[in-house]
Amino acid sequence: MRHPTARQLTTDVLVIGGGLAGCWAAITAAQAGAKVVITEKGYCGTSGVAASAGPGHWFIPPEGTLRQDAIARRLDMAQGLGDAYWMEAIIDRTFRTLPTIASHYRYTQDDNGKIRYHALRGPEYLRALRLKALESGVSILDHNPALRLLRHEDGSIAGATGVCLKSGQDQWSIRSGATILATGGCAFRSHLLGGSNNTGDGLLMAAEAGACFSGMEFSAFFTIVPATTTMARTMIYSFARYYDASGHELERPESPHDNRFLAEALKTGPVFCDLSRVPDDIRGQLPQISPNVPLTFQRLGIDPFTQKFPVSLVGEGTIRGVGGIRVTDRQAGCGIPGLYVAGDVASREPVTGAISGGGAVNAAWALSSGCIAAESAVAYIRKQQRSPKEHISYPEHETVAQDYKAVEKAVQDEMLSPHKQYFRTASSLEKSAQTLDAAWQHLSATLGYDTDVRAQLRNHELKALTAVSRWCTASAIARRESRGIHYRIDSETIDNPTHILSGGLTNPWTRSVPVETFS
Q: What is the structure's pLDDT at 131?
């Protein structure tokens, strides 16, 4: 790394990201006999949106037609963009794998004495995954974010470089036989609970290595939260009623994830939520399933089941949206040899289509894609016969933007505005694209050099936020119809569903691909 304090390590499989997908990937690879290292920006076991949630899973037994029925329902909701093969693979892998965490996680029983495998307590779940990973022989580097991927001369991935936040100066490089990106999605620094590290880092690294994206237009996802909080846990809101400041009840759509009506109402004044219809059994289970939810209301001094309370919307971007790195094969590859993708960093179109996977499908995707990516990575390295002295290209040090606040504000003004994102038009999207292009140019024009690794990380995150916002906007321009969570006021009628691919850094590009050609 041409740095006096650089650390250099070697491993079979490098997993970048220590959340739900990253932990399952690391455990799977280690249990297959591989030497595994996790590099995590935060602290593996507490980082990411799952750690602070009560993650459910798409957990369906094989008896009868339960799985076939579930897949049929999901394909219908996917609006032409789902893949039955992937759905079956995710359901099956989740059902077989999730119970294995019982060695480190205390499952509870329902009222009938049946073990509740599908619903877990996030803090304990992620702690159990960390412990299971360590027990499996995984090396975990906390507070060591990756910044760039390493490449062989033939373009295949050779590992990654990054920085150690503990020292403030140290650089590191890890050479690996295969690399798994599990860095999560991008919430554009919306203050989503658990999402502070989700700044699109893995998406930027993948783009620099030549990967492309799919479904980035499906990023207009906003979650209901009690006003002034970040508590974006939505299960109880399926029973909610909403009222304007005058006490008139708002008419809400049938779709549980369509909050456009709230965005419209919030333009004219406060909106209040009534949760009095939440069933007693769910009220009783809430402290165990999602303990942060009742805690938030306690701190506000509100009984949410007897008192109305004001709500607002917080953006989740691609975290509970859909888009990400395009999955190009059944092995969780992305078209670049030696690089595999798992969890929110990958496009979930195969299992969610044009709509959000909510919590259950997304969690099952994270678990299963992590396991699949790990098995593929191990198989890949066992086929390779590379010389230890083979040349690897090392990237130069990150340059740092001197004026970052203006760029971050420009990105957030476009991507975290419910009205701009929920009510898209060709004109509004073109204006957003121009603003974001200017932000990118401003970012590039104010670069300098800084040896402080925190400054380098901040710049990397800002570059990623801006790049992701441009891919989302370009994809939304390219999809001229309304489909799923992508809503265009000026929608055209398009009969044949297509995937919108995107990529590029200096000049973002998009391409429409028929569904039948998408793996």
A: 98
